[in-house]
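Study the following:
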Amino acid sequence: MKRIIYCIFLLCLVPTISWAQESDEDEEYQTEFLYGINFNTNGGLIGGLVLRYSTVIDSKMKQTFGLEIVNVKHPKEIRSQSATNGNTYIYGKSNYLFALRPQYGRELLLFRKAPEEGVRISAIGAIGPSFGIVKPYFIALDDGFGNVTIEQFDPGNIRHSQQNILGSAAFTRLTGTKIAMGIHAKAGLSFEIGGFRSSATGFEVGALVEAYTKKVIIVPLAENRSVFTSMYLNIFFKSKR
């Protein structure tokens, strides 16, 4: 993940940045709406979704209202395969953790870009509450009599050994889901690449820290935490009005 962020950062240096040229492009628009995909060091292949609404304060500053919906994984999660039917599951996993992060922040313009070309660079900062959705991870089990039972993984249950697991159960089961309360803060750099005058694409890289009021048990037999840190990459599309 860190290598990906580093490579993208280098690529952003290739386009010509309008360091000295002042443009009134931003003054034409008072609001922005951004949506994109999140990648982070705790989220696996795709971390989640990002939404953000921004309004202009002055020529250099915007206030932002955002929402992130992100899957938080434990570093000890290892996907296994059932010897009985070949279905996959994560042995040892007891809960999912999905983080809903409403946030308020500021965006400070560092470098402008010429209209429809170049790269616009901004510093991003945001803070807000975290609502951790702790959803049980269910597995399908062979009860030894030709029946299949669905249960949350429990390391203390001798029936939950790998030879009895047939795979992970349907994700739609919500029984036992709980909410963990917390807070988060993030800081990063946003690189907006030239597009149409009323829209643009780009990416944002940065770091995030998130703290819950108690430990969130994802993999019971491993070390679990109440504080999570991560590097992130957001790839986004932005519309302006």
Remarks:
- Residues 2-240 form a domain with the Porin fold (CATH 2.40.160.20).
- The longest strand covers residues 119-136.
